[in-house]
Each structure stands twice: as structure tokens, then as C-alpha cells.
Amino acid sequence: MVSSWVVGLTSLLLSATNVVATGGFPPVTSPPGACGLFPADASCATVFEACVNTLQNKADPYSSEVCVAAASCYPTNPDSFLSNLFCRIQGPTGNPPKSADIPRVPPSILGNILVRGEFASLQSYTSWYNRVVTSVNPNATVLIDPAFVKMSFDIILAWTGFCSNGEVPAGNLGDWFQFFSTVTGPATTCNLVPNCPITFYPYAMDLTVTCARQQNAVSNPFSIQSCVAAALNWHDGVDSFLQALTCRYNIINNGNVAVPASNSLPPLSFNLPVSNSPPYTQQNFVDFTYGSVTAIGTSAARYPSTIDFVTRTWASIVQWTNFCSTGAVPQQNLSDLLQYSHVALTGTCSAVTCTPDANASCNQLFTACLSSSTILTDPYADSNCVLAATCWGGGINAFGNAISCAKNTQGKNANPQFWPRLTQAVFNTLGNSNTGIISQQNYIDAFYGALGKLSSPIWPDVNYVIGKWTTIATWAKFPNGNIPYGNFADWLTYSAVA
Ligand SMILES: *[C@@H]1O[C@H](CO)[C@@H](O)[C@H](O)[C@H]1NC(C)=O
Ligand SMILES: *[C@@H]1O[C@H](CO)[C@@H](O)[C@H](O)[C@H]1NC(C)=O
Ligand SMILES: *[C@@H]1O[C@H](CO)[C@@H](O)[C@H](O)[C@H]1NC(C)=O
Q1: Ligand 1 atom 10 nearest Cα
Q2: Distance in Å, CA 362 to ligand 3 centroid
Q3: DSSP track, 386-417
Q4: What does the pLDDT read at residue 34?
Q5: Is the CB of 137 under 6 A from ligand 1?
Q6: Nearest C-alpha to atom 4 of ligand 2 is from which residue?
């Protein structure tokens, strides 16, 4: 079993929605995972991780400066921060404290955010936040997204009602940490960061932030590796990428350059650093993307959580450039894509053929599973899906990908780690509700019972079913085959990662 912490580290990889932050924290559309949302932003993830690992006095989370920084940047509000923090410290059960009930941020820490001990400004908040992030991990400094930091302060400024002068008095700043979760402020945003797209694919964000720090990022982005990798992996298309890049570039350089038109930018000016010369294959694109993420020193937790994100992007690139026949894209045509594609790529070369499971009975359960009303949000609410997950060749990640393929969701929400956990109620339809245990016999009965409800079931050999159960029992470390509810639920969630 992995700790929920490890799971959290990867949970940030899954959120797949791109938004323009228009005030308030960016909306969250991914499933929460075991402990709730992990910050999608690299710097916020860094301070949050440090808070989880170092908090000494659990009765007083704001006694820790990294925890205060994490509360200030954590998506949604300080109460969500606290519930995620305590879930990771003490497990998913138990009641986390509420921000209104914990001691205030002490003056010693608040003072570090203030100018002359009087008020917080964008500048004082930014330098404090950057200093705390850097003190935790100097490697994270280059990944601090200047737009994200500004958005975080914007929220504080708006809630406290100081949009007009941009200065939050000490007492009001303390109030924000205490009451933001429960009391509505006069505004949700002061609009400090207009039109600055965000992606929740962490690797694309980190590449973009790195790109924006380059001197000629806006004038000649397609001459820079991080910028090209970011542009090709920015799921909302090149125009959106250039907007995201330029607004960050302007914050970093305190400037006001206009967003360039992709058509008028210099074309792609270097060969991608891959093992062969162009045309580029899918493998080249995968190597280029992972290589570029590695080159900026971002942590492995921020890599694409599934290679599918990258291969599906490539499939759209191949389709847009019109190389479906070979699957390999010449340099010039890749350059054309950067200059002329503008919007999000959605096509792929042919209708994707989804591979069925090798076993007919498992495939029948899978087909039944696909008709679940919650197939895209909560597959394990359906017992056919639970059973199909247990028999699917390749394990639960392959099962998630199979759902994504069947429903054509382009890899979105395909990772079972972030699906809602198996409920006791669904478990009770499979195992023994009195003992809370599912035995091998229960599993066999459930498997055949579910098939029996389908028209023309293809009955499997019982040794096939037993083999599936043995694999799960071995993973769960219950070799006698009697698996408690929680351990079975863990298998459904974590068996691909541990
Ligand atoms: C920072 O990066 C270096 C080089 O990759 C690595 O050796 C070091 O462990 C990193 N430090 C932290 C705190 O992650
Ligand atoms: C690829 O680019 C070249 C050079 O611009 C162009 O002549 C060719 O038509 C393009 N290929 C496809 C398949 O669009
Ligand atoms: C697969 O399915 C068939 C029919 O459902 C079953 O008889 C067989 O034992 C299964 N075995 C394997 C290894 O797939």
C-alpha cells in the first residue's frame, strides 16, 4: 500500500481542465483523490508538501511558516487546505480543524509578509512567498508561476476589500487566513491578472513558466526548447499558449508587450533533440516531451501521469499536419503547426479502435459496465465495473484507459487513483456485509452472478476467476483470499502504483 501522500503527489497530474482564472481560485474539476486536491501549481505543491512533512504543532498549523504559505496558495480556501493537510497527517478519517477555530497566524510570521509591519502589498507578498518556496526547495524557485502568485494575492486583496490601494492591513490579512472559508468578502477578484490562461497539466505549466523566463520567449519562442515543448503540449492550442506565455513574461519583466500572432513569429528553428533526424515519430515526441521536462529540473511527480496524454497529443498533431499515412511528421510541417494551427487540436487520424479484453466474460462485464450512469465520474459505483476492473488484462490503469477509449475522453479522468473510492454499499453487493470481508467464494459468486444477469453470458472457467482473485489477494497481502473491504478498495484505487 502506498501512503495517501504519494498518491497526492501524483493527483496533481490528473486534472485535465484548462481555465482562465477569472477570480477566485481556478475551478477544480478532477476527482479529489483520497485526501482531496493536491495543488496543481509547482510552488504551492512544494510548500504544501513541506507543511505536511514538517508541521510540529498540529493544534496550531499557522505556527508553521510553510503552512501559512500553503494556506495562502492552496486552491479553494484554507479549510480545504486544512482538511487535505490533516487527511495526509492522520488518514482520511477524523475531523480536520476549521480555520476559524485554530490560532491566528502569529505576528512573527505575519510580519514577514508585511511592509514595515503595516500592510501586505503584491510585492511584499510575492517576495515572502518566493522566499518561503526557495527555503523549502531551491530547485522549485524557477518553477514559481508569477501569474499564480499574483492570483493568490488578488484573492486576498479582493476578500479584504482593498482593491483600490492594493494594500492589505495586518489585521485584515490575519482575518483572511481565519475567515475566508466562512465569510464572503466584498469582491472575489481585483482583476490583477486578466486573461492569463492556466493549464492543470503540471508538465505543460512548468514548461511554460520556464519558457516565460527566457529573454526572447515572446519574440522567438519556437527557437527555445522549453517553449516548443510547452506549445506542443498546451492542450488549448498555440494561441492560448502564446497568451499564457506573454502574460507571464510581462509579469516577470514588469513589461507590457503584446501577445504575438503565431503566423508572424519566426518558424521552428531547431531540430528536436531526439535520436534521429526528422520526420518525427510518436516515440520522438514522447522522448522530446519527457526530455524537456527533465531538462528543467522539475520533480518526477509532475511528469505526465500517463503517457496517453502525450501520445494522444501526438495523434492530433499527426492528424492536423496530414501525415496519417506514415504517422511521422517532417520538420517543416511541425513548424507549420506551431504557426498556423491556432486552436486546440481535437482530431485523430482514424476512429480509435479500442482493444477488448482477451477474455470474453471479462469483456462482457466491461460492456455492461460502460452503460453505468456514472461511468465518467465514478466507475466503482457500479458493481459490473468493479468486477471488470478485477479481471481486466493489464490491471486497473489499463481498465481506466479502456473506459477512456470506449467513451472517447482522450485520456481524461482515466486514472483510477482519482476515482471515488469503492463505497461500503457497493462492496456489500459483492462481499459479506456482516463481516466486511470478501472471500474467494464471494468473488466467484459475484462474478458468475453478474454474468448471469446479462443476456447470453459466456461462462469462464472457474480457474480463470480464481486466478484473478489470487492476484488481488497477493497484492493485498491476504493470501488466504479473505480480503477486508478497505484492502479491496485500496486494490481498486492503488494497485497500479504499489
Ligand atoms: C535539487 O536538484 C538537484 C539536482 O537535480 C538534486 O540533487 C537535489 O536533490 C534537489 N534538491 C531538492 C531539495 O529536491
Ligand atoms: C508539409 O510541408 C510542406 C512544406 O511546407 C508542404 O509542401 C506539404 O504540403 C506539407 N505536407 C502536408 C501533408 O501537408
Ligand atoms: C477466458 O474466457 C473463457 C470464456 O469466457 C474461459 O473459458 C477461459 O478460461 C478464460 N481464460 C483465459 C485465460 O482467458
Answers
A1: 139
A2: 9
A3: HHHHHH-TTHHHHHHHHHHHHHT-TTTT--GG
A4: 63
A5: yes
A6: 332
Best probe residue, ligand 3, of 362, 458, 464, 471 (max atoms within 8 Å of C-beta): 464
Nearest ligand atom owner, CA of 364: 3
Identify the pLDDT of residue 309: 79
Per-residue pLDDT at 117: 96
- DSSP structure string for 260-283: PPGGGSPPP-S--SSSSPSSBPHH
Q: Tell me if residue 140 falls in helix, strand or coil.
A: helix
Domain positions in the chain = 42-180, 202-340, 360-495
Condensed to tens digits (0 to 9), the pLDDT of residues 42-63 reads 899 999 999 999 999 999 999 9
- Ligand 2 atom closest to 322 (CA): 13
CATH topology of domain 360-495: Recoverin; domain 1 (1.10.238)
Q: Show contacts of 130-137: CB within 8 Å, 24+ apart.
A: 130/43, 132/47, 132/65, 132/66, 132/69, 133/43, 133/46, 133/47, 133/69, 136/46, 136/47, 136/49, 136/50, 136/66, 137/46, 137/50
Distance 358 CA to ligand 3 centre (A): 8
What pLDDT, on the 0 to 100 scale, is given for residue 324?
Answer: 86
User: Which of 61-75, 292-306, 360-374, 441-455 is predicted with the least confidence, judged by mean pLDDT?
Assistant: 292-306
Q: What pLDDT was estimated at residue 352?
A: 60
240 C-alpha to center of ligand 3: Å? 49
